[in-house]
Design a protein that fits this description.
It contains six helices and four strands, in the order ββαααααββα. It is α+β, with helices and mostly antiparallel strands and 161 residues long. β3 and β4 form a beta hairpin.
Length: 161
Amino acid sequence: MGANLWVGGHRTTIPLRWSALQELPAAESVIPSRLAVYTALFMGLLVAVFADQVRGWSGWRRVLGGVVVLIALAPIVPRFAGSGMGPVDVPRFFTSDDVQRVPADSVALVVPFPDRFASFPMLWHATAGIHFKMPGSYFLGPSADGRAQYGPPPSTTRRVL
């Protein structure tokens, strides 16, 4: 649903369909992954209409149609433990009293730099009770020219990290 394919948490240079649309004037304000809900709804509707048609078929066509419906429904089967999905590891520093060594409301540089490609540092920040401030984030805001941009403006710190 984005501009590039992500594999195992790493962004590749393989373009996806959104890359052709992201330069349109209104597309800069769209977060493609949020369209997944509508995509799933539409695909569910298509599968339901097709399954309804299969009920009226007979013979080998009905069997083949049933197999197609089962294949279409396979992705909604729950994934089991060990599938790579699960709780995010939060470094011990953010869950312990050690975080109190950072003065309240001071600014701490958290590495990796939090942005739309690495949002887990924001989870660490929240786990620490937002005790300190940190540069970087993942949000949609205005750029210097008034256009929408993700996160803060580019900086040397962000590029280096």
